[in-house]
Amino acid sequence: MLLSVVMPAYNAGKTIKESIDSILNQSFKDFEFIIINDGSTDNTEDVILSYGDKRIRYLKNDVNRGIIYTLNRGIIESKGKYIARMDSDDISLSTRFEKQIAILESRPNVIVCGTLISPFGSKTKKTNLTKLQLHNLKMKEQLAITTCFAHPTVIIRKFVLLSNDIKYDENFKNAEDYKLWIDLMEYGEYYTVSEKLLLYRLSDSQISQTNNPITEKSVSKCRELYLLKFVDKFVVSDIRQYGINIHLITKIKKQTDNKKIIEAAYLSLNNYGLKEIIYYIFSLDLFSLGYMVAMRFCKRLIKGKMAIYEF
To answer: Which residue ranges does the record assign to the Glycosyltransferase 2-like domain (predicted)?
Structure first.
């Protein structure tokens, strides 16, 4: 079997039928579909059991254990060469798996393959997942600040997880995918198909998760882990103790040319004054980091500190 699709489901009775149908109607057919009911109290189970498709493997958690436990259980239970993610409120376009598997089968160095998304649902909510990079190096640079995949679009090469004992980390709640991409980045290439192959549902509860203290703590820990791959522990210790100043930026630049790390440092300065402006201009970072970074730097000059690196 080539592919195992893993879908966690918790109180998804209103949306899961569309999601299941979108998987069963894929043009690519060689897959098992593992649906794990994570202690739902609504009609989620009834909807799942209404299907007679033999590709569906229905599993239940004894209680609500959360998405991280459930995803790891799905990986353990899977039989396929690849693991595909799917959420119980999103919709995959019919050629999604066909196009992703074609990439993975023809490019053995690619270990994770995602796609672009089309957001739908809430008319007032937005997501940064529409601004993803498409190519390996740019995607991995993006991890200095945020995730590089829309999580429910990915297909992962399973042996890379098993051979390196990598799984979703319970200590990174609400940022478990971000942590996973940081853990996997040294083992192969990342790739995003330049087509919108998943309809990504936006909801009020989903948005609120991205702005709570638990998420912020997990994201900060991810950024710290990423930074430690490029600079020594003493730089990170200085950031924890003193925050970021121009002297520390010069240290960072001596240890890495990763532009996203340098960008994040500039956007996390303790102070935005004349000294910082002069250095930013005459070091030529104003030009090398680009227009968008300059705009965000100017915004901080006006509004004050809005740190990205704050451990």
So the answer is: 4-157
Residue 163 has, within 13 A of its CA and on its CB side, a CA count of: 9
What separation in angstroms does the CA of 134 have from each of 33, 192, 229? 27, 5, 22
User: 297 — phi, psi (to 5°)?
Assistant: -65, -45
Angle of CA points 290, 293, 294, to nearest 5°: 80
pLDDT digits (tens, 9 = 90+) for 44-82: 999 999 999 999 999 999 999 999 999 999 999 999 999
Q: How far apart are CA 6 and CA 163, in angstroms?
A: 20
What digits encode the pLDDT tens for the residues 148-196?
999 999 999 999 999 999 999 999 999 999 999 999 999 999 999 999 9
Q: Which amino acid is at 111?
A: I
